[in-house]
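**Fold in tokens:**
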Amino acid sequence: MDRLRAFIVVTVVIAAAGIVVAITSVRSGRLLGVKAASSSRGMGVASAPRNQSTGVAQAGTIRLASNGTPVPPFLVNDLDGQFISTADWHGKVVLLNFWATWCPSCRQEIPQLINLANRYQDRLQVIGVSMDDAPPAVVREFAMRIGVNYPIVMASPEIVREYGGVPALPATFVVDTQSRVVQKHVGLYPPKVYENEVRALLGMPVDVKVETFEDFGQIFLKNASLATELPGVDFKGLTPEQKKGALKRMNSETCNCGCMLTIAQCRINDTSCPISKQLAARIIKEVVTGSRSSSSRAQE
């Protein structure tokens, strides 16, 4: 009997500890078993949103760029042989969705896109850009089997390059009725986020707050050169001229973490990168002291 009581006590203690751990994990924002988004250093699957300043700022809020970049143009055939031209997008909201048949999050997202395409078919254009290495016929068969109701084109190096690279899937660019890219989402987002963005851009009522931001590289990394602040970089104490010089260097010198981006672009694209943070801090120090490292001079 004593052994039975001891066993029961131990079991209860273990169960209670498990509950405490679970509650602590939820409170701290950790979800066990959820894979972190892939790094921009290689193509991967983003199973959680990767947006930082461009994403949903808080519950009940959407954010759209006030200085949206004109959509990079292309003219290609879709899987059915029909021409897809960005010139035909004017006047419509467009969701340009980069995806792949092997991407679990992409497959989970497709029914949401099908639903949006059905509900806003006259004013919304959804376009899938397949990142598959498989032949177009394989992608077409997959799309037909799951009932995709919007055109799909095969990605090319040119398209990927024009859209600033696709670090992880799914990745969706939101284009307004003036053919400007005003948002980018990397990862799986709630369908309500996309619907609110579509409705807001169409001038329809939404039950959320609509905020704007300036794209300083959050959507297109090439816009990093317009940034006056960078994540994790302390410009305090610099004169306006020193800050200008520091930003110029960060936009011209390459981060050596392997990302092949400038230091400024790396800070925006991967705020957790310790190397770009160290390089930026070194530049700030050199600007203040008036010195230059040999590695910096070598890049000039």
User: Anything to note?
Assistant: The domain at 44-213 is CATH 3.40.30.10 (Glutaredoxin). Residues 224 and 237 are 22 Å apart (CA to CA). The chain has a mean pLDDT of 82. Residues 2-27 form the longest helix (26 residues).
